[in-house]
Design brief:
Structural class of chain A: mainly alpha
Largest sheet of chain A: none
Number of helices of chain A: 4
Oligomer: heterodimer
Distance between the termini of chain A: 25 Å
Shape of chain A: elongated
Number of strands of chain A: 0
Distance between the termini of chain B: 17 Å
Structural class of chain B: alpha/beta
Radius of gyration of chain B: 20 Å
Largest interface: A-B, 46 and 60 residues
Number of helices of chain B: 15
Largest sheet of chain B: 11 strands, mixed
Shape of chain B: globular
Order of helices and strands of chain A: HHHH
Helix content of chain A: 25-40%
Chain lengths: ~100, ~475
C-alpha cells in the first residue's frame, strides 16, 4: 500500500492562492510521487507537469454546490453491487 | 438496385427477403471494398473475414430455410475495439493490451450474435477511447472518407469512417464525452448515445463508469433504430443497466413531428462556444426545417457548455485514473502521448473534486429535467467546427473540445447527432437531438422527420 506524505494536502487546495500561475515543478514532483508516478515523472516530466496544471484548472472551474444537503449523483442504493461475482469477461477481469 | 455497399441495413434485409441478394454476396462485396479502401481509411484494426463468412453462410442457410432471426439477420456490423468478442483481442488500440484476448462476448456482442448479425471485425478507436488521433500507437488512426486528410472524429473513429465509407452499414461505438456522436458528426452519418442504462456496458472496456454509454452508428435513422432494438435491454451483470419499456424503436418513425415542442439551445453555439459560421447556418436551418415540419420550436436556456465540460472532465479523469493507475505507474511509455496526457490529470484530482463534480452533476441533471417540463425534445449543436486536418495536431486540439455533446453524458439523456449539411470544403456539418430519459423513440422520430425533409443522408463521400 502506498503511503502518502504526512502533510498530504489535495493538490488544488495547496495551490489555491496561486491560481492561474504555473504549478511549481517541485510541488508537482511531490504530488506525482505521492500518486506512485515516479517512473512517469522520470520519463515524461512535461506530461506530468501538464497533467497537474490541467487538473488544477479543471477542478477550479466547477462550482460545487454550497448547500451541504446537495447530494452527489448517482444516488446511493443498497443491493446493486456485484459483490464477489465474476467481474469481467476478458483475461483482465475488467469487463463492466 | 443500389450498389451493395451503399444499401442500408433495412434495404439489404428487404433484398435478402426477396432473394435478390444473399448475406454472403453482400459480405463479399463489402470485403472487396474493405480490401480496396481500408489501406486509406484504416477503419479496421482487425478484420475477421473468415468468421464473418461463416456467420454470413449460416444466416443465408437460415433465411433460405424460412427461419429469419430478426430484422438484422445476415447484416454486417463492425465493433469498436473496446468491445469484447470471444477469442479476439480487445486491444483498445493500445500497446498496453495487444495480447488481451477476450474470453467471452460483451453483452452487446452476444445480443448481436443472437440476432444473426455478421460481425466483421474490430474497429479503430482513439487509444482507450480517450487518446485522440495519434501516430505513436500500434495501429494507424482511422481517416475521414469525405477527405482522408481529415480526422473522422472519435473516439469511435473506425466506426464512423467505416459506416460513412461503405465498409459496413452498421457499427457500435462507445460515448463517454461524445465518442459516438463526434464521428457521426464528422463523417456525415447518424450516431445515437442512448439513455444511460438502456444498453449494457458489460464486456466493454471502461473509461468512466458513470459516463460510459454504448451506441449505434448508421447511415440512416431507421438503421440506427434497428440496431438499437437489438442491443437495448436490461442486463443484471451491468450495475447501471435499467429495466426499461418495450424497445420498438422503429415504430412511429414516419409519424411526423406536428405534436412536438422543441427547445432550441442556441446559447451553446452562439455564446458558449461560438460555432464556425457554416455550422451555425446548418444548425439554424435545421430549426427552420423542423418548424416547417410542424414542430413548435422555441429558444431555451441550460447551464453553460463550459460548466458541463468541467464536470464531465473531472468525473471522467477521476474514474479513468482508477482504471489506468496501475499501468500509468508501471508502463507510462506504453501509452501514446495523447492518451497519457489525458489520463494523467486524474492523479492530481482530489476526492473532494470528484464528489463536488458529482454533486454539481445532480444539479445540472435537474436543470435539464426542468427544461423537459415544457418541451419534448432539445435541438442543439453537436460539433462547432467541421473535422480538422488529422495531421494538424494544434487545430485538432483546438476544435476537439468545441462541442455540445458532453452535457448529455453528464445528464444521461439520449442524444443523437446527424448530418445537417456540407461545408464549402466538402466536410459534413451536423446537428444534435436530445430526448427525455428512455424516450429514444421521440429522438429517432424527430431525426427521421428531419432526414425525410432534407437530402443530406443521400450524399456520399467522394471516396469511390
Amino acid at each position: 500500500m502506498r503511503v502518502l506524505p504526512s502533510a498530504f494536502v489535495p493538490p488544488h487546495d495547496l495551490v489555491a492562492n496561486t491560481e492561474h500561475r504555473a504549478m511549481d515543478r517541485q510541488l508537482v514532483a511531490v504530488l506525482a510521487k505521492a500518486a506512485g508516478l515516479e517512473r512517469a515523472l522520470a520519463e515524461f516530466p512535461d506530461d506530468v507537469a501538464a497533467a497537474a496544471e490541467q487538473a488544477q484548472t479543471t477542478a477550479a472551474a466547477i462550482q460545487a454546490p454550497t448547500d451541504p444537503a446537495a447530494e452527489p449523483w448517482p444516488s446511493m442504493r443498497p443491493g446493486v453491487g456485484q459483490g464477489s461475482k465474476d467481474l469481467g469477461s476478458n483475461n483482465l477481469g475488467t469487463g463492466t | 438496385m443500389t450498389e451493395p455497399h451503399w444499401l442500408t441495413a433495412a434495404q439489404a434485409a428487404r433484398e435478402f427477403a426477396a432473394r435478390r441478394l444473399s448475406p454472403v454476396e453482400l459480405l463479399n462485396a463489402l470485403l472487396a471494398r474493405v480490401e480496396r479502401l481500408d489501406p486509406t481509411l484504416h477503419a479496421f484494426v482487425r478484420l475477421d473475414a473468415d468468421a464473418a463468412l461463416d456467420a454470413a453462410r449460416a444466416a443465408e442457410r437460415e433465411i433460405a430455410a424460412g427461419r429469419p432471426r430478426g430484422k438484422l439477420h445476415g447484416i454486417p456490423v463492425g465493433l469498436k475495439d473496446i468491445i469484447d468478442v470471444a477469442g479476439l483481442p480487445t486491444t483498445c488500440h493500445s500497446k498496453i493490451l495487444l495480447d488481451n484476448v477476450a474470453r467471452a462476448d460483451a453483452a452487446v456482442t452476444a445480443r448481436l450474435r443472437g440476432a444473426g448479425v455478421v460481425i466483421t471485425g474490430k474497429l479503430a478507436t482513439h487509444e482507450f477511447a480517450i487518446g485522440g488521433p495519434s501516430f505513436d500507437l500500434p495501429f494507424p488512426p482511422a481517416r475521414n472518407p469525405w477527405n482522408p486528410a481529415h480526422h473522422p472524429g472519435g473516439s469511435s473513429s473506425g466506426s464512423g469512417a467505416g459506416v460513412a465509407g461503405g465498409l459496413f452499414p452498421l457499427a457500435l461505438g462507445s460515448d463517454t464525452g461524445g465518442s459516438v456522436r463526434n464521428p457521426a458528426s464528422c463523417c456525415g452519418i447518424v450516431g445515437l448515445k442512448p439513455t444511460y442504462g438502456l444498453v449494457s456496458r458489460r464486456g466493454v472496456f471502461p473509461l468512466s463508469y458513470t459516463l460510459d454509454h454504448v451506441g449505434p452508428l448508421a447511415r440512416t435513422v431507421e438503421d440506427c433504430a434497428l440496431l438499437l432494438e437489438v442491443i437495448a435491454g436490461h442486463n443484471p451483470a451491468d450495475p447501471a443497466s435499467m429495466p426499461s419499456p418495450a424497445h420498438a424503436f422503429t415504430h412511429g418513425l414516419d409519424r411526423g413531428i406536428r405534436d412536438l415542442r422543441i427547445g432550441f439551445v442556441r446559447h451553446f453555439h452562439e455564446t458558449d462556444m461560438p460555432a464556425n459560421p457554416e455550422m451555425t447556418a446548418a444548425i439554424e436551418d435545421a430549426a427552420r426545417v423542423l418548424q416547417a415540419e410542424g414542430a413548435a420550436v422555441r429558444t431555451i436556456q441550460l447551464p453553460s457548455l463550459g460548466e458541463f465540460a468541467g464536470v464531465n472532465r473531472v468525473i471522467l479523469t477521476s474514474e479513468a485514473w482508477s482504471v489506468h493507475a496501475h499501468w500509468l505507474r508501471t508502463r507510462p511509455g506504453d501509452y501514446g502521448q495523447l492518451a497519457r496526457r489525458r489520463l494523467l490529470p486524474g492523479a492530481f484530482l482530489a476526492a473532494g473534486d470528484y464528489v463536488g463534480a458529482q454533486r454539481r452533476r445532480a444539479q445540472m441533471i435537474a436543470a435539464v429535467e426542468d427544461a423537459f417540463r415544457d418541451v419534448d425534445l432539445l435541438l442543439c449543436a453537436s460539433s462547432m467546427d467541421p473535422a480538422s486536418r488529422i495531421e494538424d495536431a494544434a487545430e485538432t486540439a483546438r476544435t476537439y473540445s468545441r462541442q455540445a455533446r458532453t452535457p448529455f453524458n453528464v445528464t444521461g439523456h439520449p442524444a443523437l447527432a446527424m448530418m445537417a449539411g456540407l461545408s464549402r470544403d466538402g466536410l459534413p456539418l451536423s446537428v444534435q437531438f436530445v430526448g427525455r430519459y428512455f424516450d429514444e423513440s421521440t429522438v429517432l422520430r424527430a431525426a427521421a422527420a428531419y432526414e425525410r425533409a432534407t437530402e443530406w443522408h443521400r450524399r456520399r463521400p467522394p471516396i469511390g
